[in-house]
Design a protein that fits this description.
about 280 residues, alpha/beta, eight-stranded parallel beta sheet, about 15% strand, globular, EC 5.3.1.1, triose-phosphate isomerase activity, Triosephosphate_isomerase, TIM_sf
Length: about 280
């Protein structure tokens, strides 16, 4: 099944006006090296979305990192999906592990955000993944199923699955010194695809892109610089992205710290080419 590769950069709460402008300009200068069969998305902090959107070429889409589960109205501090769409954005991240753990977002909240985002016409990067405690207890697939149930609850029309990218986050590997191997990631991706086949349809299972968050790319700069910039956890390996993308059910990456360096981000975006995945299409 032909699925377009997808690479998203989540800048999180990082960047000043100056640094976000510089990063966007660097990506704009280097992005032509990325194969057109890769969809590229970056998600700056809200205050810098307009700035970045004006700099990057059309080849790079800009996403919101979060969205309200409610509509417009008296919800101080919230940004509605309708407002995100009205601003000209096409993508939003929902259910990120940091939203779940730091801000106690539950599956019901994720379902509401998925539903309202799809209703507004946005594409959704839906994040799921288990903690170290869950993995040690042997509850990986129980957690994945629960998270998938939450995402699915927000999808009211089967056709809307075409607007969803599922991002598997092995939360247990973040900041623990333990790295998810390509085989471990593939195992969960296969489970996700089987879930979609059993609970939605085989066509949705075949067509839905499932990406992996655990990707740290080698950077030739001195270690102190690398560690300070690539701080998501996990192991920094020269061929990590290439090794992951060789798995047939991994369709791309959601990149954290490495997306703050344009060169690293572009290298990761080129992983499908380096892995020879295009020759398999």
């Amino acid at each position: 099944m032909l699925r377009r590769f997808f690479v998203g950069g989540n800048w999180k709460s990082n960047g000043t006006v100056q640094s976000s402008r510089a990063l966007a300009e660097q990506i704009a200068q280097q992005v032509q090296a990325v194969d057109d069969r890769v969809d590229l998305v970056v998600a700056p902090i809200d205050l810098h979305i307009g700035l970045v959107k004006d700099i990057v070429p059309a080849k790079v889409k800009v996403a919101a990192q979060n969205v309200s589960g409610t509509g417009m109205g008296a919800y101080t501090g919230e940004t509605s999906a309708a407002a995100v769409k009205d601003f000209g954005l096409e993508w939003v991240i929902v259910g990120h592990s940091e939203r779940r753990t730091l801000y106690h977002e539950c599956d019901k909240t994720v379902a509401a955000k998925v539903e309202i985002s799809l209703k507004a016409g946005l594409n959704v990067i839906a994040c799921i993944g288990e903690t170290l405690e869950a993995r040690k207890a042997g509850n990986t697939f129980d957690v994945i199923k629960r998270h998938l149930d939450g995402v699915a609850a927000g999808v009211k029309d089967q056709k809307q699955w075409a607007k969803i990218v599922i991002a598997y986050e092995p939360v247990w590997s973040i900041g623990t010194g333990v790295t998810a191997s390509p085989e471990q990631a593939e195992e969960v991706h296969v489970y996700i695809r089987n879930y979609l086949a059993d609970n939605v349809s085989k066509s949705v299972s075949n067509e839905t892109r499932i990406i992996c968050k655990q990707t740290m790319y080698y950077d030739a700069r001195p270690w102190p610089t690398v560690v300070s910039r690539l701080s998501d956890g996990g192991s920094v390996k020269p061929d990590n992205s290439v090794n992951l993308i060789q798995q047939k059910n991994i369709d791309g990456f959601l990149v954290g710290g490495a997306s703050l360096d344009a060169k690293s981000f572009i290298q990761i975006a080129n992983a499908p080419k380096l892995a020879g995945r295009f020759s398999m299409l």
